[in-house]
């Protein structure tokens, strides 16, 4: 298991909802300070995870020493979310989650990323994603400029 300090990836379930919500909220607050302040509390985000995210997406969690350290959510071939606990960034956990997503997306994966999120953009570009388009923010609820990135198999990783 993960008692030896190794990170493993497994499918998420309803029992993980509260921890996924905590990871989601902490990651957004730490890595995207340009976002408007979170208006929803932990209970509301947990309800969203349980009632929307886990029902609409395939969701995986990264687990180390029996603690969830990150999650990824895939809807069809669209990576909707990939978030890590802020203290676990740059340790390979995001790559493990992304590799799991790509295993389940044999035709490729797309995602949206805020243009301001330079760390995420660099991460995805290192993993072979390329820019498909840019948008002025009209398509996201934050109304911030974003871009669509795409990875297809047999491209550089």
TrEMBL record:
One of the record's GO molecular function terms: acyltransferase activity, transferring groups other than amino-acyl groups
Keyword Transferase attached: yes
PROSITE patterns reported for this sequence: GNAT
InterPro entries, sorted: Acyl_CoA_acyltransferase, GNAT_dom
SUPFAM superfamilies cross-referenced by the UniProt entry: Acyl-CoA N-acyltransferases (Nat)
Domain N-acetyltransferase: 7-150
Keywords: Acyltransferase, Transferase
Keyword Iron: no
The protein's name in its UniProt record: Histone acetyltransferase
Highest classification ranks of the organism: Bacteria, Bacillati, Actinomycetota, Actinomycetes, Kitasatosporales
């Amino acid at each position: 298991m993960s008692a030896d300090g190794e990170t493993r990836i497994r499918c998420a379930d309803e029992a993980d909802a509260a921890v996924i919500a905590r990871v989601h909220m902490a990651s957004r607050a730490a890595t995207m300070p340009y976002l408007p302040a979170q208006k929803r509390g932990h209970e509301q985000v947990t309800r969203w995870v349980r009632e929307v995210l886990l029902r609409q997406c395939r969701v995986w969690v990264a687990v180390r020493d029996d603690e969830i350290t990150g999650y990824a959510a895939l809807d069809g071939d669209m990576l909707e979310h990939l978030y890590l606990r802020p203290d676990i960034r740059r340790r390979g956990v995001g790559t493990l989650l992304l590799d799991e997503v790509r295993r389940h997306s044999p035709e490729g994966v797309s995602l949206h990323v805020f243009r301001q999120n330079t760390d995420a953009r660099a991460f995805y570009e290192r993993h072979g994603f390329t820019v498909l388009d840019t948008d002025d923010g009209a398509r996201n609820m934050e109304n911030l400029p974003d871009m669509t990135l795409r990875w297809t198999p047999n491209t550089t990783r």
